Amino acid sequence: MTSVLTRWLAAPDRRATPAAEPPAGAGAGLLLTGVVAGLGAAAAGLVIFAAVIGLAWIVEPAIGGSVLGPGRLSVQAWLVGHGADVVAGDVLVAITPMGLSALLAICCWCAACWAGRRTQVHDLAQLARVLGGLVIAYTAVGLGLVLIGATSGAEIGFGSAVPGIVALSGVAGACGLLRTAGHGRLLHDLVPFPSRAVLSGAGAGALALAAAGVGTVGISVAVDRAGFATLTESLAPTWSAGLGLFVLSVLLLPNAALYAVAVLLGPGFAVGAGTTVSAFGVTLGLVPGLPLNAALPDGAAVPLGALLGLVVPLLCGLAVGVVVARRLDDEVTALRAAGWAVAAGMLLALGIGLAQWLAGGSLGEDGLATIGASPMATAVVAAGMLALPAGLSAAVLRRRHLSRRR
């Protein structure tokens, strides 16, 4: 297993040497390799979920009921990780634990890396054939799992499952193929702007904001350790239940970190109709009894840390500008550097809005019908707080660089 992962992950970032003419039947072979990769990616995700849920069922047989229960729960978890809506009884579960999605994306990425190394494609047309086979096979498995996961007590939203399955396998598979097949630089050569600098700046800002979001959640939970312990003991009186609660909290941590980023930016987020948390106001109501909710403020007063946290996006914007300026060619002027840094900040803001949309959702149709941050408001505020500092820092750094060259 270790050697297989090593071969997947140790792929060179180089262009494959083009062959004079592809051999006969190469198109079918590429498609078949993609199909095998798609089946493997889907099976890997199912096996991981089945192992975790099966272990929980062995320890607590009440989980899942009969022996078929853990299998159905594994299928439903796989579908929920792709954004599928599940109706259990009269409760609509329409929120995606981003930890599940990340795990499934890693499975698709690893399978695509294997396919890229095996096929050694040398142009984007052949790469598209492999990716097409991967997505088709992965989606076919997903359609079958929609039928398997539906039971008398649960219904799976077909219209919500299919787009997520196609999008996750397509994006993760494309990234893995481009990386491993040696075409990572080809996309940069095709676009008429310094994409390396822009994407590097946006990526650096995204990592900084993600770290700030996770840190904010951790500090907030640490401040209310007593509340966290009380919720954990009430929901998980045994060690096995505590382990399951810990796994659930880890899967929901990316969602909580994204909500924390929304607070750092200002607009904040909602936990149903009765609770909203932002840097400018707090409204408290009834919330689910999850340990992560101990990170919510205890009173209606705005925490001082939330106001001080408004500085974090500005610092992230400055970091975006620094990375962009250092990645540009030497002859780029300060004004152009500022423009590309602003573009990187706008791209990051767009990504933040998309991430907030994916992390939000609802639990039921009453008090918890709206959970998460507003994607539009968060993206608009992020554009201003990230793009302007990014442009300023890039211009200053580029001007200093040009003056030293003179």
Describe it for me?
The chain is mostly helical. The protein folds into 2 domains: 163 residues, no CATH class; 215 residues, no CATH class. Helices cover 69% and strands 4% of the residues. A hairpin with a 4-residue loop joins strand 5 and strand 6. It is flat, with a radius of gyration of 23 Å. The N terminus is likely disordered.
Topology overview:
Elements: H1 2-9, H2 26-59, H3 68-80, E1 86-88, E2 91-93, H4 98-119, H5 124-149, E3 154-156, H6 158-180, H7 184-190, H8 195-223, H9 225-235, H10 239-265, E4 269-271, E5 276-277, E6 282-283, H11 304-308, H12 311-327, H13 334-359, E7 371-372, H14 375-405
Helix pairs in contact: 1-4, 2-3, 2-4, 2-5, 3-5, 4-5, 4-6, 5-6, 8-10, 8-12, 8-13, 10-13, 12-13, 12-14, 13-14
Shape: flat
User: Into which percent range does the helicity of residues fall?
Assistant: 55-70%
- Report the mean per-residue pLDDT as an integer: 81
Strands, total number: 7
Domain module tally = 2
Q: Give a quick account of the main beta sheet: strands, pairing sense, barrel closure.
A: 4 strands, antiparallel
Distance between the termini: 56 Å
What is this structure, in a nutshell?
The protein contains 14 helices and 7 strands. The chain has 406 residues and is mostly helical. It folds into 2 domains: 28-190, no CATH class; 192-406, no CATH class.
Keywords:
disordered N terminus; 406 residues; 7 strands
